Request: fold
Amino acid sequence: MPASKIDVIVVGAGASGAVIASELAQAGQKVVLLDKGPKHTTEDFRLKQDEIRYYARGSLVPSMDTDPITWRETSQDGDGELAPWAAGPLGTANPLHLPPSLGAGGGTIHWGGACWRFRETEFRMKTEIEERLGKEALPEGHTLVDWPISYADLEPYYDKTEWELGISGRGSNVAGRPELNENPWEAPRQRDYPMPPLRQGTADIEFADACTRLGYHPFRTAAAIASEPFKGRSGCTYCGFCHGYPCHVDAKTSTHVAALPYGEASGNLEMRDYCRVYKVNRSNDGKRVTGVSYYDADGRSVDLEADRVVLACYALENARLLLASGINANGQVGKHLMTHAFGFFMGLTKEPSNPYMGTLVASTSIEDFSGELVHEYDPTVLWGAPIISWPGDYQPIEIAHAMPPAAPRWGAGFRDWMRDNYGHVWSMYSQTANIPTNDTYVDLDPTRKDPWGQPALRMTHGWGPWDQKMVEFLLTIKRKIAQEMGLTYWWEETTKPDYHLSTHEVGTHRMGEDPATSVVDVHGRSHECDNLYVVGGGQFPSYHGYNPTETIWAMAYMTADDILGRSAPAPVAAHTHDGHTGHASAHTHAH
Amino acid sequence: MTVHDAATAPDSSVALTFFNDAEARTVEAISERIIPDGGDGAGATSAGVVYYIDRSVSGISQNLQHVYRTGLRALERFCQSEFSAPYVDLSAEQQDDVIRRFLGPEVVGPAETPQMYGDEVGERGELDRDLPILRRLFAVVREHAIEGFFCDPVYGGNRDAVGWQLVGFPGAYWGYTAEQMGPGFDGRTLPIATLSDLRRQLQEKSLPDNSTYYGNEEK
Ligand SMILES: Cc1cc2nc3c(=O)[nH]c(=O)nc-3n(C[C@H](O)[C@H](O)[C@H](O)COP(=O)(O)OP(=O)(O)OC[C@H]3O[C@@H](n4cnc5c(N)ncnc54)[C@H](O)[C@@H]3O)c2cc1C
Ligand code: SF4
Reply:
């Protein structure tokens, strides 16, 4: 427990916050880590094979009652309504349709764990599009910019993420390993993943074979899941309650087991759970922050002071807190909102797919149509994305909600459809981000408040025709794959989905070198208050076909180095599994 | 249609915590038309769906109590005026017809919105005022029936795991082996396990080591 003086307050114990807090504490900084949710332990999750608790009732995600989010399609559409896609008939939501959270681990407690390094061209997406397709190709009113850093700047941090936190996979462009070459478009990496890929389910093998026959280049999706014991954590048992569920054996790389215990073992980190921060406090001249105010579990307001504050509450709440605290001198906070459309494509396999086994991310992907590569096939599509197989991890209620539009919704036909087809369900998806425009942003809702009297977040977001085109192009490829796989039936999500939250919201506190046009610098440090850091996907200047979190983690390590005045990790020469077992002793669930 | 025979219901789970008896019988009758028994013993009634719903509404879904209470009253008004009989006494065809009116047809095309009772110009006074609550009631019962049919039995529904047996879902497993995940394996051959089974195994420490599952050698 820190003495009275606190060096750093970190708000949010999720993907980015737990990593930064633990890095700082291990380097000797006194850290208090605040989260509005609970501090989970693995014991809480032994009986997590429960679709009612985690899926139907979404017990690990915030609810619209406590954390309301309103939405409108464009700024011409009135004041906004409570996110309509988030509440089913019962007022509870599919975990994918709300911001991730709550508590230690944040979104990583119950995420899918798909991990990607962005390819080199993604960091200059705007320039690539303009050079290849012409300046007029981007829609009017777009606010796309290139990243102020390159892939090479992040590579040492990607490497650190994979080896510190535990990512399984098989690299394709590894220094000194020419035999690893499945994905011709992988960015160069200094070494392979610390663990081999997860075991595939049967339908995933069918997907990979079909892609090969079609001349595509399948490779194994990297996963933040231990495929074998890693730093005292178990290998994955393929329990089939993974996406949307916590892990009962700590195989899933959640920061509450992969980062936090190391910080706590240093004796310099105190985590306070059930503490909801509602304001960042500033000095009189506004140039610095002095700390934060929060409501504790009993609803008491507490003021806490520190030399530095790190906001790591997810892209949406980060923006809301900045706005509610009046930190927005240049008007950039909340702008440039980007999120993913998934282009979900579901089908039925001939042989049983046994969809309740494994994890969705024990899967295969193709990059043949990623990023600028798509221009060779269709120059009217602005940017492509990988196509990813989602081979399992489907429980019955989830499938009852995802049936084809032509299937009966009730009655004998409903029952029989589930009886005949549940065991054959399989799916694939892709992730294309909307191009940010002047009309995709978040701000404070003018009227709606949360139960603590704080203004709700309002989203203004719609899918443009250019966004739909990306989804549609990838659907045409998915149809070819489905045909080649011999699926007996398939159905597709629309190119204009009714959701506007995907758990991959980014861009809302953009990083950049120019203080006039961005919120934070390349290390996540606020241009406006120089001892405030605002971190996470909100920093992304553009967004692409990849899940965000490996990049969020890489940037989190960068932020920690900046705070500590450390330089980037030096390259690691050899690929070895042994270097890591030594850490296991620091791993503990005790507190 | 009557309340599920206590003789075939396990333990004390036929008591009610929110619904009165008539309400329970009506909810059970609606649920049975949403997930009817196909002659194989797997339907909403045999699954005890109404007990799942009753516990949900007295507990986590208290916010839906008014939907059931006022919605079921409105349904009785409708059935009396249309059929001069309560919902539970209608024939299966009539019950389906009522559901169609308020939930829409079984099959709705991709881009269509269901054509429902009340989309025509209303001339029925009080019954028209009941429309929103009736539509909400049926949407909620459908959702709850699906949950109660596929939930772990610990929640009061899915009795004897009839819902899981119907679709071939093995239930609460600690993990699956390489052999079980391999090609040609039909998961319908796996025995069904519930959360209670898993808890017992944990307490007895009778679960195999995790390496049984993460190991890639087929036994
Ligand atoms: C079901 C699901 C599946 C996903 N699958 C993937 C995937 O496969 N791959 C991938 O890359 N990403 C995935 N994600 C997204 C991933 O979880 C997020 O990208 C990631 O967690 C974001 O990290 P973060 O640090 O910005 O925020 P979070 O991890 O969300 O952490 C924010 C933390 O801040 C806390 N907090 C929020 N507001 C306050 C406040 N006012 N005061 C105090 N504490 C607060 C929250 O409780 C939370 O613990 C998934 C998410 C979900 C929900
Ligand atoms: S599938 Fe693996 S990683 Fe996912 S929850 Fe189960 S054991 Fe954990």
